[in-house]
Write a structure and sequence with these properties.
6-stranded antiparallel β-barrel, 24 strands, Thrombin, subunit H, 536 residues, 12-stranded mixed beta sheet
């Protein structure tokens, strides 16, 4: 059957006629929509008449108020609502007082997104970020939809950022973290604080699903909005809380002269290690004095929670409050609220560890409390251009192959005598996870210097770390004092009970031998270990 020219003309006339008939309806709908928009603009939301209207509720929802602590203009937003939820409306690019109505805790936050919907198939890709003065959270949201030509039926998907690098001007900053949560480098915060108007920020996200990549995964570059950058400049200048530097004393502790087994180190150290839980996550920490003072990482307590719950290996459970944060060296101090007496770990305050030394990392990776891993000191890295723009900066780092995972942050890295040489901080996994066993701890020496803690007065018979070690002189002095004390006790006891003094001395001799054996056994064992070490 051949298509005639007359039929073509007829079809063309019908098509024109159809659009001609529908055009009034279309324009009526357009005008009605325009009129509706005009009506919306004319509504006075300050009027009691319109205040409860849906449009006015939406408009008043984002009204700015002045934050009393910082003086910044902020928008209040309920922290108890999951910001990753599909249909949550967020105040993009504005400084938000992200407040929990349940606990009253809050943090100043900025939300940003790079949203794209494919014209042809309607597929949605939205890269969403949440910024605070301490960290960056980010995820990719994907969803299906209908475009001009076809529809896609992909369900909603959330993909946490795995690796993030920030580019601004000629600078780039590597971020370290996991599960979409990354600690912001002090260098980046300082750079943005001092930056001028017109500064741009781009993020390089690695390991995300990428439709343009043949492998399905690749690098994605996203620009951060101009208004968001301006808000970040204000937030970093005024939004960080200031803390008064606390004062506390450290003392020399008795430590083993010989190298301890990992099992012995764990049994000595774990009672002083705690798991720290807050609304924003969890990590580890350890006691540094006998009054409940806990040392941990800044990013463990970065959520500005009012209180944290601490739990220990020996049944300790208590609330703790943040009393100090050092953003430059990435550490924090918490004070337990009701623990009267705590056992502090011995600190290696006098010297840095040496490459090749055995070390043990303790903490709560992924919430698994009391986890112990071992390794060696791979390197001790002094502050240098090598580590510029890396988290953290301006600090000596102890590199180790002892496993450090999420949740281990803030736990102690101890040497073979059980002395703390560093605070477990972060790991580098490399591109596509190809790097292994690149873990870092902040040097305890640098932390104590930053806190201006005074070292104990110099004495003899101390090890490289500055702690006490048992010597034969100490042992003889202790033995002599024990003999005198025992004899006095026996004499007084005999007089009180009217017992023959010679029988009393026989009893004293027996008891002294038992006491002496108890004291000698540890020294004999240590001597044997040292002899075995020399033979090896």
């Amino acid at each position: 059957m051949r298509w005639s020219r007359s039929k073509t003309k007829d079809l063309f006339r019908k098509t024109i006629g159809f659009f001609a008939c529908m055009s009034p309806i279309f324009f009526m709908g357009f005008e009605a929509g325009l009129a509706e928009e005009v009506k919306k603009v004319k509504i006075n939301c300050d009027s009691p008449v319109f205040r409860e209207k849906e449009q006015c509720k939406e408009e008043n929802r984002w009204q700015e108020i002045i934050d009393s602590e910082t003086g910044l203009k902020v928008i209040e937003f309920d922290k108890d609502i999951d910001w990753k939820k599909k249909n949550v409306k967020l105040p993009w690019s504005k400084i938000t007082k992200y407040k929990s109505l349940l606990t009253g805790s809050y943090e100043l936050t900025i939300f940003d997104r790079d949203y794209k919907a494919d014209f042809s198939n309607g597929a949605v890709r939205s890269l969403n970020t949440r910024w605070t003065v301490n960290e960056l959270n980010g995820y990719l949201f994907t969803n299906g939809g209908c475009g001009f030509w076809v529809c896609t039926y992909e369900g909603p998907g959330w993909h946490e950022f795995q690796q993030v690098e920030i580019f601004s001007g000629e600078r780039n900053f590597k971020l370290f973290g996991s599960n979409g949560k990354f600690s912001l480098p002090y260098g980046f915060i300082n750079y943005i604080k001092e930056s001028k108007e017109g500064t741009t920020i781009r993020l390089k996200i690695s390991g995300l699903p990428n439709g343009q990549s043949s492998r399905g995964f690749g690098d994605v570059f996203i620009p951060i909005g101009e208004e968001t950058v301006k808000s970040l400049q204000l937030l970093f200048k005024k939004g960080a809380k200031n803390f008064n530097k606390p004062t506390f004393n450290i003392s020399r502790q008795n430590v083993s002269k010989s190298k301890l087994d990992v099992e012995d180190i764990a049994s000595i150290t774990l009672p002083s290690v705690v798991m720290i839980k807050g609304e924003s996550g969890l990590g580890s920490g350890f006691f540094v004095d006998d009054k409940g003072l806990i040392l941990t990482n800044r990013h463990v307590v970065a959520g500005d929670d009012k209180e944290h719950i601490i739990t220990g290996d020996d049944g300790i459970i208590d609330k703790a409050k943040v009393i100090y944060i050092d953003r430059q060296l990435d550490f924090a101090l918490l004070q337990s609220q009701s623990l009267d007496v705590t056992k502090p770990l011995p600190l290696c305050f006098a010297d840095y560890p040496r490459p090749g030394q055995n070390v043990v990392a303790l903490g709560s990776p992924l919430g698994l409390a009391g986890t112990v891993t071992r390794g060696i000191v791979s390197a001790v890295r002094q502050p240098s251009s090598q580590l510029e723009d890396v988290v953290p900066t301006f600090v000596t780092l102890v590199q180790t192959d002892a496993a450090i995972s999420g949740g281990n942050s803030g736990g102690p890295l101890v040497n073979s005598s059980g002395e703390v040489v560093g605070v477990n901080t972060w790991s580098i996994h490399g591109r596509d996870g190809r790097a292994q066993n690149l873990n870092f701890a902040i040097s305890i020496v640098d932390i104590l210097k930053a806190l201006e803690v005074k070292a104990p007065s110099k004495i003899s018979s101390v090890n490289r770390c500055g702690n006490l070690q048992p010597t034969i002189g100490n042992f003889l002095l202790l033995t002599f004092a024990g003999v005198i004390l025992l004899l006095l006790t026996v004499v007084l006891d005999c007089k009180g009970k009217k017992i023959d003094l010679f029988k009393g001395f026989d009893y004293a001799q027996t008891e002294f031998k038992r006491w002496l054996l108890k004291k000698l056994i540890p020294y004999i064992e240590e001597t044997k270990k040292e002899e075995k070490g020399e033979k090896k």
